[in-house]
Design goal:
Blueprint lengths: L9 E2 L1 H5 L4 H17 L4 E5 L4 E4 L4 E6 L4 E5 L20 E5 L2 H4 L2 H11 L4
Antiparallel strand pairs: 1-2, 2-3, 3-4, 4-5, 5-6
């Protein structure tokens, strides 16, 4: 993951994505496409040193790039139905899915989790 900057200033999402390798940029864009299809009116923001945050009145998805994968964090992940056991983490509420390939990003199982998080479909 690129070195985090300490300023919490909001930046354009495209500027945030440029910080990553071409492969990770592609995965971030793939995940964003899925999220935007699920919640086209969601608010999307990026801040220096923080993941991209996509929020609706029902939930929050954060997209975080690393050297070899993209994490898709679900704000209420601990409460989501996850029959394929994609969600990782042990926190009280947040869980994440590791996306390593375009197929992972386009997975109907990931989409179902995003739908649960960002809509009333729980």
């Amino acid at each position: 993951m690129p070195k985090a900057e300490t300023s919490r200033a909001e930046i354009p999402v495209a500027e945030h994505i440029k910080r990553f390798s071409p492969e990770i940029q592609r995965l971030i864009r793939e995940v964003r496409t899925v999220v935007k299809k699920v919640a086209p009116k969601a608010e999307e923001k990026a801040y220096r040193g923080w993941p991209i945050r996509i929020r609706t009145e029902h939930g929050l998805v954060a997209i975080m790039g690393f050297d070899d994968n993209v994490n898709v964090n679900m704000g209420k992940g601990a409460r989501l139905k996850d029959p394929k056991k994609l969600l990782e983490g042990t926190g009280r509420s947040i869980r994440h899915v590791k996306v390593r390939t375009a197929a992972d990003a386009k997975s109907p199982h990931l989409r179902a989790l995003i739908e649960q998080e960002l809509t009333r479909a729980r």
